[in-house]
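Predict structure. Chain length: 358.
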Amino acid sequence: MELHEYAGNMHNHTPHSDGVLYHDDLAEAALRAGLDFLIVTDHNVWVQGPEGYHTGAGGRRVLLLTGEEIHDTELQPEGNHLLVFGARSELAGLAPNPQQLIDAVTAAGGISFLAHPFERAAPILEDAVYSWRSWQVNGYTGLEIWNYMTEFKSLVTSRPMALFYAYNPELGMRGPFPETLKKWDALLASGQRVVAIGNADAHGETYSMGPLSRCIFPYEFLYRAVNTHVLCEQKTSGDVAADEALIYSALREGSCFVGYDQPHPTRGFRFSGRSGEQIAIMGAKITLGGGVTLRADAPRRCNLRLIRHGETVAQAENSAQLTHTVTRPGAYRIEATIRFRARQRGWIFSNPIYVRPH
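Prediction complete.
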């Protein structure tokens, strides 16, 4: 099965909420970073109108779309941020009731993701911890398992650390928080379909400490870091509405993976399952039969782990491939780490293949 891969970032802000640059500039930064699509998600405002393709040098293009990051501004402590894509209407008024909001997104044909579901305090920057708090909700599409700026914030535990990581962020980035992965695995083990995405959460703000000022971090820098790669059976055509639907369909189905593209490009990663005549890709179901052979292919040598409900069932070290036949039903996903800046760091996090009983 031929699949077409498109890399994008889906958590970004402009001056319509608390970002620095407007949509056209974000699209230019995405073009320079080599992204294929970009979704702007200003806080509690759906900005209609900027959607469309932007073309750069050599005819390269990026599809810019608009979504929304919705949260209840009166909630204390703060939190419950929901990324909304494809609803094509303003739903911020429903923020005080997260379940009602999620249901409204679904009814409008959209998809929703719990943004930075677990955060850690960083008093040197701000005291707020914007974690997801209403875990009794259901019907959302998935979780933002890796948020670059959320992880960066967790590193800023003192003034010296703030200065160090402001100039050397790659030395601190390790991957999604363990508590986020634990929650994701628990949801999968309960039988839920939960799609994982990863993003920048780009604002482009400049911070000062004494005589030093630094942008934490430029949009283009972030677009070269944690992104979501979608896999589509059809190629994008250049038609904005059709290509938007194509990308959102892949996200809804979980035909995507999270890649940290700074250590090494993650384009080309694939994870599939085969049982007899059945073939499944990320996000798909496959019937167990006499066993399902799962195979992961990475674009370079790394450490690969096959995980079922939080437990490692197979692994391959310093390899670009892992193949393993499973005989139990469950949600199986891949984690890949890669050596970068003197240590193993999170690199690729696949969405699951759902192995069903006979």
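Summary: The two ends are 24 Å apart (CA to CA).
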